[in-house]
Write a structure and sequence with these properties.
With 220 residues, the chain is of the alpha/beta class. It has one domain: 3-Layer(aba) Sandwich (Rossmann fold), CATH 3.40.50.150. It contains six helices and nine strands. Strands 5-4-3-6-7-8-9 form a seven-stranded mixed β-sheet. Strands 1-2 form a two-stranded antiparallel ribbon.
Length: 220
């Protein structure tokens, strides 16, 4: 694991108190955020802002999500240890790290080759055992399903049916639904073969979910 300064640990404690004040009540999620060094997932230009509750740019025109957003999505998933979770959009790898801290078996897909490679190096260096895929998130990873949870970390007008059907009965999918400038966080709970309950949980802003693999069609 990576050595950390007392300053970074102190800033993370203050972030956790801020999230608690904003209504994040799941102590397991807060503890997981408290264990993950967010600053190492960020570009050098933003390091001193790493523990502000804000989103920041990363490589390939993407962003590392606001900690509050990560906490909301994770809390809505309501995962347990050894649950299988599919993440659509690895990005920096920060969300995957939070899930791994909760004892989840994480399967994560990234379409941007640069982010796919960087996240592997980063998460492996932290000791997390995560399954990485370079691929199209719209397709999911059905061969490893069904999943207890699916988390989509990009905006989608409609959740692909292929992903909803990769949930086990009782499984939960969390996705920001809507257009580019504003989305509604939506929770789907699969109740039967063709039956899903839905609920909404506030407005957020994400980069759009895109099809295909950026920079090529080959898989690694």
């Amino acid at each position: 694991m990576i050595e950390e300064s007392f300053e970074a640990k102190g800033k993370r404690k203050r972030l956790i108190e801020e999230l608690r004040g904003k209504g994040i009540s799941d102590e397991r999620v807060l503890e997981a955020i408290g264990r993950v060094p967010r600053h190492i997932f960020m570009d050098d230009a933003f390091l001193r802002h790493a523990y502000q509750d804000k989103a920041f740019p990363i490589s390939a025109g993407q962003t590392i999500s606001q900690p509050y957003t990560v906490a909301v999505q994770t809390m809505l998933l309501n995962v347990g240890k050894r649950d299988k979770v599919l993440e659509i959009g690895t990005g920096s790898g920060y969300q995957a790290a939070i899930l791994a801290e909760l004892g989840v078996k994480v399967y994560t897909i990234e379409r941007q080759r640069e982010l796919y490679r960087k996240a592997q190096v980063m998460l492996n260096s932290l000791g997390y055992r995560i399954q990485f895929f370079l691929g199209d998130g719209y397709e999911g990873q059905p061969q490893y399903g069904p999943y207890d949870g699916i988390i989509i970390t990009a905006a989608t007008a409609d959740v692909p049916d292929k992903l909803l059907r990769q949930l086990r009965i009782g499984g939960r999918l969390v996705a920001p639904r809507g257009e580019r400038d504003s989305q509604v966080m939506t929770l789907y709970v699969r109740r039967g073969e063709d039956d899903w309950d839905t609920s909404t949980h506030g407005n957020f802003v994400f980069v759009p979910m895109l099809k295909g693999i950026a920079g090529g069609n080959d898989k690694e």
